[in-house]
C-alpha cells in the first residue's frame, strides 16, 4: 500500500485504528449507515415477530417468549434503537399494574419487512433448501 497511490485512501478512525481501504464504504454511505442498526443481532427477527403480531404489534413479554435466547436487556435495547430509527412505535399502558408496553411496526417498519421477505426469497433460491419456509408467508411462520 502506498499513500500516494490513488487506489488507496486513508480511512477515518475505525475501532480506534487508522486503516487503509481500497474503495470500501465510507461513513456517509447509505448502506453502511443502514447496516449499523439493521445488522445487529436479533434486529431482523424482532421486526419479523412484530410482523406476526395482531395489528403488527406485540407486547414486550410476547416478544421475549417468541425470541428464544434473547435477554430482556438486549430486547429492550434493540426495540429502543428501532423506535429511534422510526421502524417501531411504542405504546405504554400505565392505567393498570403491571405496566404493559406494546410495540408495533410503523409504515417504514412494514416496508423493511418486505425487504426481509426478499432476503428470504433469495436464500431459498440460492442457499437454503427449506420447502416448509418457502410455502408460507413469514406472518404465518411457526418454524
Précis, in short:
The protein has 143 residues and is an alpha+beta fold. It has six helices and five strands, in the order ββααβααββαα.
Walkthrough of the structure:
With 143 residues, this protein is α+β, with helices and mostly antiparallel strands. It has 2 domains: 1-38, no CATH class; 40-140, Arc Repressor Mutant, subunit A (Orthogonal Bundle). Helix content is 44%, strand content 18%. The protein is built from 6 helices and 5 strands, in the order ββααβααββαα. The chain has helices at 30-38, 43-52, 60-66, 72-84, 107-126, 131-134, and strands at 9-14, 17-21, 57-59, 88-93, 100-105. Strands 3-5-4 form a 3-stranded antiparallel β-sheet. A two-stranded antiparallel ribbon has the order 1-2. β1 and β2 (17-21) form a beta hairpin. α2 crosses α5. The protein is globular and about 50 Å long. The termini are far apart. Mean pLDDT is 82; it is low at 1-11.
What is the tally of beta strands?
A: 5
CATH superfamily of the largest domain: Winged helix-like DNA-binding domain superfamily/Winged helix DNA-binding domain
Would you list the SSEs in sequence order as H and E? EEHHEHHEEHH
* Reported CATH architecture of the largest domain: Orthogonal Bundle
Amino acid at each position: 500500500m502506498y499513500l500516494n497511490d490513488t487506489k488507496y485512501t486513508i480511512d477515518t478512525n475505525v475501532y480506534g485504528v487508522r486503516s487503509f481501504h481500497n474503495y470500501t464504504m465510507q461513513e456517509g454511505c447509505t448502506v453502511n449507515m443502514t447496516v449499523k442498526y439493521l445488522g445487529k443481532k436479533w434486529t431482523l427477527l424482532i421486526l419479523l415477530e412484530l410482523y406476526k403480531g395482531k395489528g403488527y404489534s406485540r407486547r414486550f413479554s410476547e416478544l421475549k417468549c417468541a425470541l428464544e435466547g434473547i435477554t430482556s436487556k438486549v430486547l429492550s435495547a434493540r426495540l429502543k434503537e428501532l423506535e429511534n430509527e422510526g421502524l417501531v412505535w411504542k405504546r405504554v399502558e400505565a392505567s393498570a399494574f403491571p405496566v404493559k408496553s406494546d410495540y408495533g411496526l410503523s409504515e417504514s417498519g412494514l416496508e423493511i419487512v418486505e425487504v426481509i421477505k426478499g432476503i428470504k426469497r433469495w436464500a431459498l433460491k440460492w442457499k437454503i433448501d427449506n420447502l416448509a419456509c418457502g410455502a408460507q408467508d413469514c406472518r404465518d411462520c411457526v418454524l
